[in-house]
Amino acid sequence: MSQRNPMNERYTSDDRRGTTRKSAASAKPKSKAASSVTVVPGGKKPKTKEQIKAERREEDRKRREFNNRYYKPDTLRYKRLRIAWWVCLVLAIGCCALAFMGQDFLSGPAGVVVLVLTYVFLIAAFVIDLWPVRKERNAYQERMRQVELKREKAERAAAQQSQQKKGTAKKGSGKNQNRHAAQKAAPAAEEAPASDETPVKPARRGLFGSGFRLSNREKMQAEKKAAKEAKAAAKKESAE
Fold this sequence. Notes:
Elements: H1 9-12, H2 24-27, H3 49-69, H4 76-101, H5 109-130, H6 132-171, H7 174-191, H8 211-239
Helix pairs in contact: 4-5, 4-6, 5-6
Transmembrane segments: 83-102, 108-131
Keywords: Membrane, Transmembrane, Transmembrane helix
Region (Disordered): 1-60, 151-240
């Protein structure tokens, strides 16, 4: 093991040339911690004020279009209320005109009565328009809103079903397609009219084995019999 020389200048002189190496943590500049740290959670970005205003304007536009489309209900009660409103309004206008134009011959309590009737008919027209008519209109609009929602749901469900059918048709293999074709062809064959030709009956099987084996055996027996007959005929000819 090596030993350091005590007479080396590094140990004898007062001037220290070497310095200790600082670590990375100590060399890093220190910064003060922030007083408040805001952490934004991941996910959807918050909407800006312009986007919120645009959405509100779009909702208001759709609401106005809906109200204008279903402003006049087609119910019998609404029609009667509108007739009553028109009658009260016309009577109020007539009484008002009579009260101002007939001041010469409507003197005293008659003019006051006509003027009071004017206010009565006018107030009745406002009351009919504000309460019963508006109530009937709101009920009609709510009913039509439910109808439109059901229609949209039905259209959405029909679109989903059509997409699912298209997806299953694309995913189906040739084997499944042949199977479906055979299933479709079966009822068509049942519905087809019967032909005039008599069906050919299949060959009956014997007790042992199939009909094919019996036919071969019969052929062999017939060949043997023909060979015996040929030999017998040859013997007769040779004997003569």
